[in-house]
Amino acid sequence: MMRNKADNKNIKAALTIATAALLGGNSTVSAETVNSTDDSAWEFDSAFLFYSEADRVSASEAIFNAKKTFEDDEVLNLKLTVDALTGASANGAVAQPNVQTFTRPSGNGQYDVAPGDTPLDDTFRDTRVQINGQWTQTVADDLTASGGVHLSKEYDYLSLGINGNLAIDFDRKNTTFSLGFSYFQDTFTPEGGIPKPFASMLIGDSSDPGWDEEFAKTRIGSEDDKTTTDILLGITQVINRRMIMQFNYSYSMVDGYLTDPFKIMTVVDNDGLAQDYVYESRPDSRVKQSFYAQSLYHFDTTVLDVSYRYMWDDWEITSHTIDSRFRIPLSDSFGTESYLQPHFRFYQQGAADFYRPFMMENDPKPAFASADYRIGEMTAYTLGIKYGRLINNGHELSFRLEYYRQTPTDAGFDEPGVLKEVELYPSIDAIIAQVTYSF
Amino acid sequence: MKNNRLVSINNHQDGYALNFQAMASPCEVLIQTRNRQLAVRVGDVVANEVWRIEDKYSRYDQLSVCSIINNSAGQAISIDKETYLLLNFAEQCYQLSEGLFDITSGILRKAWHFDGGEKLPSQAQIAACLSYVGWPQVQFNPEQITLAKGMEIDFGGLGKEYAVDRAIILVKELTDLPVLVNLGGDLAVTSARLTNIPWQVAIEHPDAHGAGNSSPTDMIISLSSGALATSGDARRFLLKDGKRYSHVLNAKTGWPIQDAPRSMTVVAPACIQAGILATMALLQGENAEQFLTEQEIKFWSRR
Amino acid sequence: MNIMNKAKVVLLISLSITASGCSSLGVEPWERDLLSKKEMTLTASPIDSALDDHIYFSKEASSGGKGFGGGGCGCN
User: ipTM of the assembly?
Assistant: First the structure.
């Protein structure tokens, strides 16, 4: 028997009318279900994300998350993340009216950048594997404890971490205080070693017999490390039946090698012409603090999620982040549920005190300097939309598409000579596409 | 059965369970309250309503409205509003299923005996029954119904689900507290449980034997409003030459529907909707899941 | 005298706001129908959050706040 979809839809609608006639309009309630095949079964989430910047890097990231809830509400969460990055990344130097030649971070070979172009190192290629395990359990009536481990490995980077969290509920679980701690130990082994701060980039013929010896003089070692200690204090408060809020304060101490070994700076003369390229140098500690507030409000059917974060650190970077999502359900009374979720994020940051887009030849050498636009002044926004659908047997499929634009801005640096003619603060546009399947 | 009409009360988690037998099934009312008096009252109201519907529409009970209609031998029988509404609903189901669902098809049971054995009826036996099947031949209006001699109607495919919906309506008049009414696996809830937890419903695996103990392969569904109904019965089938004949019959051919899932569970605002959708899906045979998917209805099927 | 009264009134108002503010916050267990929905959890989609954190951690100078900002990758 052949039926088209429209006919089938009529069956559902006609049956609703027939039922109302039979039961006297008492059947207008809708059905709401959540299902799982077994209470203590594993739940899986898998996601694939593609990130692509126009003319720069593109990255693919896959996550597989497995969660098991045991009988006493203990939760084991295991997560595997694999990502691959390829493409070109800004090396920190400024555009020039002439062709520029740079040495690759490994010391093996050179690359040229056309006049007027922002110098990009196109040898970026990395694959990362990350494993996380987290155990959460109730230790007393109103006390929940959680502990986890983290391992992340790249070709040139290893990160090991642990974390712990305690949450205490008060007032019928309407108020929750939480205290968290995390510690990371990272080791960086960049190909070509760790460059000497402010050493001039060696440019020339890398096949020359004396090259390796000369290149080694710009290096201070083969690896370096850093530690990150985070403390997080939080309070979650149920306001009323429709609203919940969270406030967090976090304190983060990073110590060790915080410089980017792949980033250089242009040293220019009074005409703005490049005289030298030197490796950047950052302080060996950074203390970051942030205040975070989030609120969720449930309207009749829709849910608004808004958060704000203010971050400040001893590099004198400050930032404001506003993130908001609005979930619009598209469900019917037969258990099918789907939703649309627009997303808007706004980010604004001030520059680090040692950030400068380039160095002047005749200026005294500063203690620290970096031309990495990521610690300069910038504004960024993200616009996105997500569509999710609950499918049969409790599985959920969702798609997310976002547009991310970063606009580095001038924090008031003088632009001598030719630097007035070139783009010092190029914008970056990226597209983020994601598919998630939960089962 | 009527001598067995008792409602027993038991503690159940943070409330009470009221248990009784009706429509050849174990029935259960769960109420989340510590008020024992209220629990007893709700249990009595539900049990009485279910028994009332059973008495009125059971084809096994010679005094039931159903039997009076079936024994009318072509005479017009006057009916009340409730019966008219049920017949009207059956009419809608017949139309919507394009004749696959037909409450006059129960007579085919005289040819088919789904006892797990391998004895198939002959085509002649089936044809003999089929001549008494055909909803369009039934004449009815709000006052009366006329059934041709030899024909029978059977509310078995609707009665239990209808009883669940009627019970929920009556319970809501008594209390706002969360109540679940479960009549042999067809069930509905008035709301989510207090403390925000949905009701956890276990759907027995078709291969599980005996009721009560949930086997590890049971499916757990959380329900916070609306109803669930399951069609299909693992214990009613014929097995011949390795082929399984389910008890779901095509009212047009008189033969079992082929390649239907062994059971189909559907969620809907009302139990009678869930039940009819589950049955209509089974009647689509191998396209059962597709049928519900196209209509964007949530289901759980077992093959 | 006038000033005194005013101060008292202001104090009383602020006290009553605090008092009523406290008592009206929160819900009874049976009022958690909306809060119990998955979309009302503070991190409704942990996967999205993890992916976003990674992107913004590697592209901006800020991280964390909602959860740990930590290290974990050599991407910045």
Answer: 0.87
